[in-house]
Amino acid sequence: MLVERATHPQFLSNTYLVSDGEGGPAFFIDAGGPTAPLIAAAERLGLAPTHVLLTHHHFDHVCEVGELRARWPGLEVLISSVERDLLVGASGDAVDSGGGAPEVSTIDAGSAIRFGALDVLPLHTPGHTAGMLSFLVGERPPELPPAGMAAGQVGAGARPARAPSTTAPGGFAGGHAVVFTGDTLFKGSVGGVRAPGHSTYTDLRDSIMGTLMELPPDTVIYPGHADATTVAGEWEGNGFIRIWRGVDAEGSEQCTALGEPATLVLLGEDYDGGTKAWVRWRDGSDDIVPGSRVERQA
């Protein structure tokens, strides 16, 4: 599996180009830019991108869809049905390549897509947004042909099987599966639940503990911001997950968050070098808010 990444210098959001190797079909995950290096990489590697898979509708993940569609006008843009209408409002003309309002199609959890030797399975991981999708990507075992086709047979228009793994300069070699988590889970941190279109703290926790942490430990995590990690790395080292597991204790410090009295359960790391705060309100409900919005008592 070949994964190329570009990171926006201001947003620190990641755009990914993914393929099963050189010279075949490919797809993008998110499009916050800069897309120019990924367009160049696709051309250098002889790739033919067909889709942009969007984890969610926020501007920092979609603002350069138009640049990709200008280069490949036939690119199909897919986003959760929960977020399709929000995408237009959040991005303005960002998804348009200049030829009028583009069509944006929808995809939901469980609707697998095949790209060459890769299978892509959307996972519903709400919290940061209600329709957030993570994308689980794995290589099909080469010895398993499509249904109705004998082993070794190549159907009309199908591509011959490739080697199980390909690594190119500047790319990443994944394990047997990788997952692109959008703004649900980061290296050492988690997504907030105060952004436009958010759902709840409970959704976020369940998305991480009940979906992402159920993946094999060696699964590579490519987050929507900053650096890659693994399921095992977050299981052991992510402060939020360690408390959810019951390994570390909750904090009890009183604080003010978003101008309201609260208990500071955890002040953890965030992808941008700042902090992310898990707070508990007076009514007993929990929240994940920017650490910069928390005032600690002297």
Question: How would you portray this structure in words?
Answer:
The protein starts with a strand and ends with a strand. Strands 1-2-3-4-5-6 form a six-stranded mixed beta sheet, covered by helices on one side. It has a six-stranded mixed beta sheet with strand order 7-8-9-10-13-14. It is 17% helix and 31% strand. The model is unreliable at 97-101 and 147-175 (pLDDT under 50). Strand 8 and strand 9 form a beta hairpin. The longest helix is centred in the C-terminal third of the chain and has 10 residues, at 201-210. With 298 residues, the protein is α+β, with helices and mostly antiparallel strands.
Question: Helices, strands, pairings?
Answer:
Blueprint: E1 2-7, E2 14-19, E3 25-29, H1 36-44, E4 48-53, H2 59-62, H3 65-71, E5 76-79, H4 84-91, E6 104-106, E7 113-115, E8 118-124, E9 133-139, E10 177-182, E11 185-186, E12 189-190, H5 201-210, E13 220-223, E14 229-230, H6 231-237, H7 239-245, E15 253-257, E16 260-269, E17 275-281, E18 286-290, E19 294-296
Parallel strand pairs: 3-4, 4-5, 5-6, 10-13
Antiparallel strand pairs: 1-2, 2-3, 7-8, 8-9, 9-10, 11-12, 13-14, 15-16, 15-19, 16-17, 17-18
